[in-house]
Write a structure and sequence with these properties.
It is a single chain. The protein is an all-alpha fold. About 90% of the residues lie in helices and about 0% in strands. The chain contains 2 helices and no strands.
Length: about 60
């Protein structure tokens, strides 16, 4: 994905047509936003897993205690 963004950025730097520049900027922005979304989702998934593990562990301790 990073190579795709770099390739689009290089193409953008060489482009003189404003409409094509705008389209390439939108493509680059879309890919960057997708990467951000994937990162945030991975963080949320990990945190959710930790929370569920904690609740299950603490719940079991209270029942046994």
């Amino acid at each position: 994905m990073f190579r795709e963004i770099e390739a689009l950025q290089a193409k953008l730097d060489e482009t003189v047509d404003e409409d094509e520049q705008r389209a390439l900027e939108e493509d680059v922005t879309g890919k960057i936003l997708w990467l951000c979304w994937c990162g945030i989702r991975a963080e949320v998934d990990e945190l959710l897993r930790k929370v569920v593990d904690y609740i299950l562990r603490e719940g079991n301790m209270r029942i046994l205690g």
